[in-house]
Design brief:
Pfam families: His_Phos_1, NUDIX. By secondary structure, the chain is an alpha/beta fold. The chain has 7 helices and 13 strands. Strands 1, 2, 3, 4, 5, 6 and 7 form a 7-stranded mixed β-sheet that branches. Strands 10-9-11-8-12-13 form a 6-stranded mixed β-sheet, sandwiched between helices.
Amino acid sequence: MMDEEPAGIRAAGGVAWRPSGGGIEVCLVHRPRYGDWSLPKGKLERGEHPLLAAVREVAEESDVQAVPQVRLPTVRYRSEGRSKVVDYWSMRAVATGGFQPDTEVDDVCWLDVDAAVRRVSYPHDAQVLAAFAALPAVTGTVALVRHAHAGKRATWSGPDTGRPLDAEGTAQARALAPLVALVRPVRLLSASPRRCVQTLEPAAALLDLPIEVCGDFDEPQPGQQVDECALAAAGRLVELATAGESVGVCSQGKVIPGALARLAGREADFSTAKGGGWLLAFTADRLLAADRL
């Protein structure tokens, strides 16, 4: 995440797109206050996650319900004498309609990317659109999270697989639920330990989905190697992504970094805090982007 000046403005938005003929078109909004055409965006509410704000603002400004896919370039500029940072994501539109002009946005248009680049009023919007246009088609999306806080292993007297979330972890699981829901998963899969299943329970309740226990996302058992588990997890993630539907997955801290390194084909900092996670975008069986949640 980028640093923010104390008095700075934080905002988020997206390039919402939909199929059109043999290509795609993207959504722009017209703001009468400024007389401009721009990408839909808006300020974060206090304590709001940028990705939640991005999806909410796109819906509020354009009446487009969208599923986030890939983080796009962050824009920084001055607005009314203050620094402003705007995070953008590409988003697949899944529902539109019902737009009513108001004092903030009085018109919405859908254009192919070249026409949108010509229409927008600001160079930074054109740069975000250019980055979007350079992306391969996203064919699968996964919200991958690590289980939330579950106390210390040494203080739990039973089998480690039965160790439950503590109060901190329960709060983390509740906070993760709306982020997982943003990708509109059709399946939720969890590693075997109780704390992993419990991490997805608030999301399952929100989405009215069952949780499928999948050992491919478990940490090593006696006699297993970490690399072996990472390979199994990576393979299952590819399998899920190539099915062409969004899914939510909860795994463990010894598995996620190795699985992501294999999928990315490179070593990087894929360490994941408890209750943290990733937005994964795939094109066919190739990982296109891994963005921290």
